[in-house]
Write a structure and sequence with these properties.
It is built from 2 helices and 9 strands. It is an alpha+beta fold.
Length: 182
């Protein structure tokens, strides 16, 4: 690398121009790459760990639990499908009247159950996917949790008390099998 002594303001401008000419394309490429990375992260589906199980009518469902505002916002968006023995439980952080949910950028229909202390207060069956805003907004009259399952599989009705339990250290799941005990 050659060191050049700058004797005048003109030499300073020429040196700055040459530096920008060399670094400009690199900076531009990094900006484009950064933007593409952010877009990918934003539209990538979230896959939360299975931490709870729901047992209802001799069926067992493995549940992912969304609790943070980012997890609640993303929900099941961008996923290609939802297995019939899986679901997502949304912990709303408190009791909410007219809790709003929508199907924006969800790729498959869902049954949505609004729960207050594990009792179903509102049920929305076969909520359709929506890919253009504005989308229909589904509201549960009172809820501290919301459960989303594949449509028509659980036979859950308003007033049902659901048995949702956290997985303990003694119980785990193998994604290919049902409940396992250590």
């Amino acid at each position: 690398m050659q060191i050049k002594i700058i004797n005048s303001e003109k030499d300073l401008y020429v040196a700055a121009y040459k530096l920008i000419k060399r670094l400009g394309p690199i900076a531009g490429g990094l900006i484009i790459l950064g933007n593409l990375t952010m877009i990918y992260i934003e539209i990538r589906p979230q896959n939360l760990p299975v931490t709870h199980i729901l047992t209802h009518n001799n069926q067992t469902f493995r549940l992912e639990v969304a609790s943070t505002s980012e997890q609640l916002k993303k929900g099941l968006k961008f996923r290609a499908s939802l297995s019939r023995d899986r679901g997502m439980l949304f912990n709303l952080g408190g009791e909410i009247h007219n809790a709003p949910f929508w199907m924006y950028k969800v790729n498959f229909p869902l049954d949505i159950f609004y729960l207050k202390d594990n009792v179903v207060t509102t049920a929305v069956y076969n909520a359709e996917p929506c890919h253009k805003s504005p989308c229909p907004i589904y509201k549960g009259r009172l809820a501290n949790q919301v459960l989303e399952l594949a449509p028509g599989i659980a036979n859950i009705k308003v007033g049902d008390r659901l048995n949702i339990q956290p997985l303990s250290n003694d119980v785990g799941f193998d994604s290919r099998k049902s409940l396992l005990v250590k």
